[in-house]
## 1
Amino acid sequence: MPDSRQHVHAHLHAQSRTRERRQRLAHEAARLMAEGGIRDFQMAKRKAAQRLGILDDASLPRNHEIEEALRQYQRLFLGDRQPAEVHRRREAALRALEFFAGFQPRLVGPVLEGTADARSPVDLHLHSDDPDAVPRWLVEHGIPAQPRSRRLRLDRERELDAPGWLFNAEELAFEATVLPLDGLRQAPLSGVDERPMRRASAAQLRTLLAEEEIRGHEGRPPGR
């Protein structure tokens, strides 16, 4: 009987240590993302593990744990600056969605989720079955862009190497990934929680910005 209690106690202690390590790693990875401009969760996770000397896989946090730690870090250390960066990018994203209206565009990523900072690009999904349509549109409007490719998970079994374009506008970086038209029916899986990505159309983003403005007015002192 004593051996059994000791075994249970040891097991609970091990679980507690693992949880503590996961939390430490999540917060260190979040700090690296916020301060170092790292956008890739896996890279931030690996660097955090190396810095803290925690190398067992059981202690590695999930991406959604790091994202939550990132939100906490931004609230604690970035004050009003980070929400201002998000708002600026959302306003620019709305103009970009209107510019790309013919491609059924959607805003995705940290700008939509509210975790963007001063280094974050505006991530867009454009939809077309013509691989030349988006670069042709950019050329016609005199927008220099660099080609790129991004691997997306369409579901649990399928992946897609989607073409994309990097460009600058309004002193901000934009990344436009081009998906087939049938990609409108279901969003690719998020790298954070492996669920379909949250996406916003121009109309949905206008609503989000209007809600932000209302909250801003409600939070101001009387007479301002």
Note: The longest strand covers residues 159-169.
## 2
Amino acid sequence: MSIKLGKGQTVAFMVHATIKNKKYLVGSETTTPQVNQQDKTQVTPQDKILEFCKIPRSKNEIVAYMGYKDPRYFTKEYMKPLLKNGELVMTIPDKPNSKNQKYVTKK
């Protein structure tokens, strides 16, 4: 949008606005955002890993299944937190770097 001031002078400016349409549930003392069914049923990467590892799997199998190319990043972001929380366990805990190491969901 521009405004002409006269004799070739023009002032230009732009306005950017974001308007959000939030639906709220009415009838409670506090108004809370409405949660749709899709929000409730999203599957996280951690959920996928735990489901896949119901039978023992190697790290390379898990990385390939999840579609990652860098096993170091994948291990740091997903496997280590699951191992730390005890949701995922090593089949050979005494030898964490064994080539035969597999991971399984704790029951």
Note: Residues 20 and 33 are 13 Å apart (CA to CA).
